[in-house]
Amino acid sequence: MNIMSQSVFSPYLVRKILSPVVVAGLLIFQTTSLFGKEQKVETAACDEIALNRALGQCKACHSVEKGETHLTGPNLHNVYGRQAGKVRGFNFTGDLKAAKFKWDDEKLDRFLADPRSLFPNTAMAFGGVEQETERVALVCYFRSQTKRY
Length: 149
Prior knowledge:
Blueprint: H1 11-17, E1 27-34, E2 37-44, H2 48-58, H3 94-97, H4 105-113, H5 115-118, H6 132-144
Antiparallel strand pairs: 1-2
Helix pairs in contact: 2-6, 4-6
């Protein structure tokens, strides 16, 4: 089974995609029993078509697989949950080095939409991922391939 089909959307991403147009085919509701209580659990597959489009843009400057060297930008493997501006072997700009947060759904979505909205002095020469479905797919991918969350 594909790892994308096993990914779990966070509540933030579920709120982001809950629209009549996008929900179809992405969100599956399951009822599970946890300590004797029924709970509704939201699971979803990353949109692989949107992911391939968006990840191709990322790969122009970033490596994404474990163990790959940094390119113009840092390797993005295990970025989800990682301290922003901190990865061994990469020299970030000052405002990224000074960041006081870990990458989560909301911060990744905001950064992917408009990198300069979080870091005005970033060296990243990329205007952002305009399509929300592509940003959601990227965050889903980063969550799915990170062991820390």
